[in-house]
Specification:
The structure holds two protein chains of two kinds. Chain A is α/β, with parallel strands linked by helices. Chain A has 18 helices and 19 strands. In chain A, the strands form five sheets. In chain A, strands 1, 2, 5, 6, 7, 8 and 15 form a seven-stranded mixed beta sheet that branches. In chain A, strands 14-9-18-19 form a four-stranded antiparallel beta sheet. Chain A is globular and about 65 Å long. By secondary structure, chain B is α+β, with helices and mostly antiparallel strands. The longest helix of chain B is centred in the last third of the chain and has 6 residues. The radius of gyration of chain B is 16 Å and the shape is globular. The chains are: A alpha/beta, B alpha+beta. At the A-B interface, helix 4, helix 5, strand 5 and helix 11 of A face helix 3, strand 5, strand 6, strand 7 and helix 4 of B.
């Protein structure tokens, strides 16, 4: 294929949003509401109707202030679940917005069932039941109605900077093969986090039967890393307790029908064996640690006990999963069983790097601006605020838009110099030319996943990290990065896969440095150091941040204080 | 495997003049259009089972099937997205069927807010090869 200047498409916009997920769409909506005359452009790697995490739908919204809860109580809950290390300011500002996000979703059409008093059905104190098979098209429709411009099937490859100021982004069209040069006054990174860094639970033909979207490849992190954005808390990986094989979420079972975690002896092990650590009210990471412990001590497998359900309830549960993981419903039917007969077996996933469940991401201020001027982050790529989920991602998108829109007229749009355009065009399309040897993106991905699994605490190493293994991971990933120049793509889809694996390697590079630096065990399983097995608040109740220097290929670590807000003062 | 596209049912939805609904929907960019004008999945191992392409196929040519290594049985799931509801048909390997219906949108939004012309996510907006249907949201 020939990629010359005719392929270059230059677009000028006021506000560029990268990623048309919850964070990006809510940002576009809010921006257009504040000022319909500004030009908003969303770049989306897939199609806005069914992209990212929400492609299949959701059956709950897991960040919501149910009656009696307050933003303050939400902060306390998130803090406790995250072993005291969170950005309280970020979590608090999310908490104040999440119910508005849900209100909008319902206005736009999301079915949310209500009881006889007109109240939502709650699942625990921070969660409500929704029938969200169509949630993504519903959000997409509301976004299209704002007249924000949407460019689907564009893979963003890098941010464009002028000194310490962002002034746009590069990307290529996976359908049209065009090279996009977007000039913007402000940029919001709103992509998903990163799956596929570690070897997944299932292999071969089933490798993408995973919980988190396999198409969330860490691009949003990678473009920030390469641009020198400060990143935080990558070491708090997210490992999730899921229904085995299909890796389906457990909330509808655990909270929805109040199924207890039992081991193969039928013991409710959280209460019977781990009461001194908090039993059922242990933080999420500890409940999973306990489950792995049961397996190690010979009492596995563990289940979510649904044998108390009636036939009718079991059928309802099957239908309920159609809103989120329809494969599980198919699984039950194919196996000729129902959850009242065969309770779902639970297992833990490979580690993911996410800011929506855990808190890996851009280090941002309360307006969601990063250390790079006019560069913002929201949702899964925004750090410091775990357990934000769908509604929190939407909240962060709106918060960012509120800071960006009133300030746009003060920003000069910077022209992008031709050398930068030429260099990036070459870097992006180079993989379509065969080099002295050929490596397919899938091969490189498998190699990376193997290294990370074995040396950086994946499933096969029981999630345990130590310095010597991490140093090996560092060495092997560095070597692998040198091999990326031999990547070869025969078409645009494969070209996208080349860039995805490059992005994942950049995320892995930063992740390893974070894992090496934290010399304690703060979040068992998420971050378990075999050589430093205890939590150490005296030395480590602080944030580990990093900045990558592209020229020197070096990650520098910065320590940042963990500050406690006076929530009572904030309320005023 | 992930999805199965019935080559007898697939009619290509007007490709190459239009982007097909399945091609539009796939979050992984996994649907290929073959030289005979019919859709095929590029790599089943890459499929996430999100069912987006299944729901929106006007010909109902697509279903999902779980890998044998996971279920040890065969079975398939079809799903049709309408404006207001989704109908699901699940078959086990003996051909026994289970049918489910789930709501897609709440009633208030159906009656007041939504312009039917703007639906790109349901098959009841699809009448033959409609340019409006295919072009919406596909760029600026």
């Amino acid at each position: 294929m020939d990629f010359n200047s005719e392929k270059i498409e230059k677009i000028k916009t006021d506000f560029l949003i990268i990623g048309a997920g919850a964070a990006g769409c809510f940002a576009a909506y809010e921006a257009k509401k504040l000022n319909p005359n500004i030009d908003v452009l969303i770049l989306e790697k897939a199609h806005i109707d069914r992209s990212g995490c929400l492609a299949a739908g959701v059956n709950a919204i897991n960040a919501y202030l149910t009656p009696g809860q307050t933003p303050e109580s939400f902060v306390e809950y998130v803090k406790n679940d995250s072993m005291d290390l969170i950005r309280e300011d970020l979590v608090y500002t999310i908490a104040k917005e999440i119910n508005n996000v849900v209100k909008l979703l319902e206005e736009w059409g999301l079915p949310i069932p209500k009881d006889e008093n007109g109240e939502y059905y709650t699942r625990g104190r921070g969660s409500i039941v929704v029938q969200g098979e169509r949630v993504k098209p519903i959000i997409a429709q509301a976004t299209k109605a704002t007249k924000a411009k949407i460019l689907n099937r564009v893979v963003v490859t890098n941010l464009i900077k002028d000194k310490n100021k962002v002034c746009g982004a590069f990307g290529f069209g996976v359908r049209d093969g065009k090279f996009y040069v977007i000039q913007a006054k402000a940029v919001l990174v709103a992509t998903g986090g990163a799956s596929g860094i570690y070897k997944p639970n299932n292999e071969g033909e089933s490798r993408h039967k995973m919980w988190y979207s396999p198409f969330n490849t860490g691009a949003g992190y990678a473009i920030g890393i390469r641009a020198g954005a400060e990143m935080t808390t990558f070491e708090m990986r997210y490992v999730s307790m899921r229904i085995k094989d299909l890796m389906a979420p457990t909330g509808a079972v655990a909270q929805g029908v109040k199924a207890q975690q039992v081991n193969s002896l039928g013991e409710r092990y959280l209460e019977e064996r781990y009461l001194e650590k908090g039993g059922k009210s242990m933080p999420t990471a500890m409940r999973m640690w306990a489950t792995l412990q049961e397996n190690k001590e010979g009492r596995g497998p563990c289940y979510l006990d649904t044998t108390h359900l009636t036939k009718e309830q079991a059928e309802k549960l099957k239908a309920f999963y159609l809103h989120m993981t329809p494969g599980l419903t198919l699984y039950w039917t194919s196996r000729g069983t129902t959850p009242d007969i065969d309770p779902p077996e639970i297992t833990s996933t490979e580690p993911y790097i996410v800011g929506g469940h855990a808190q890996a991401g851009y280090w941002i201020n309360t307006n969601r601006m990063s250390n790079i001027e006019n560069l913002y982050a929201a949702g899964d790529v925004a750090g410091g605020a775990p357990k934000k989920y769908l509604s929190g991602a939407g909240a962060e998108g709106m918060i960012a838009a509120r800071d960006i829109i009133p300030n746009l007229n003060k920003i000069n749009s910077e022209d992008i110099n031709d050398k930068d355009i030429k260099d990036e065009l070459k870097r992006v399309f180079n993989f379509m030319e065969r080099q002295s040897k050929e490596i397919l993106p899938d091969e490189l991905e498998l190699r990376m996943q193997k290294i990370m699994d074995e040396y950086a605490g994946g499933i096969s190493s029981d999630y345990i990290l130590n310095e010597q293994k991490l140093l090996k991971a560092r060495k092997h990933i560095k070597q692998l990065k040198e091999e990326t120049k031999y990547l070869y793509a025969q078409n645009l889809h494969e070209l996208m896969k080349c860039h995805e694996v490059i992005d994942r390697l950049d995320v892995a590079t930063v992740l390893i440095e974070h894992l090496l630096y934290r010399k304690e065990t703060r979040w068992p399983i998420y971050q378990s150091r075999g050589d430093y097995p205890n939590r150490d608040d005296k030395n480590w109740l602080k944030f580990i941040n990093s900045v990558y220097d592209k020229e020197k290929d070096k990650v520098s670590i910065i320590e940042r204080k963990c500050e406690t807000l006076n929530l009572k003062t904030l309320q005023k | 495997m992930g999805i199965y596209i019935d080559q007898n049912l697939c009619n290509g939805c007007g490709f190459p003049d239009h982007e097909t609904p399945c091609n539009m929907a796939c979050p992984g960019d996994l649907i290929l259009m073959q030289s005979n004008g019919k859709a095929q999945i590029a790599c089943n191992a890459d499929c996430w089972d999100c069912v987006a392409c299944v729901k929106i196929c006007p010909q109902q040519a697509i279903d999902i099937r779980l890998p044998f290594e996971i279920t040890g049985k065969q079975g398939s799931l079809k799903s049709r997205a309408y404006r207001d509801k989704t109908i699901w048909t699940i078959k086990d390997e003996k051909g026994n069927e289970e049918v489910f219906e789930t709501p897609a949108r709440n009633e208030a939004s159906l009656s007041t807010l939504i312009n039917p012309e703007e639906f790109t996510d349901s098959i009841d907006s699809f009448k033959g090869i409609s340019k409006t249907f295919l072009d919406l949201g596909s760029g600026i």
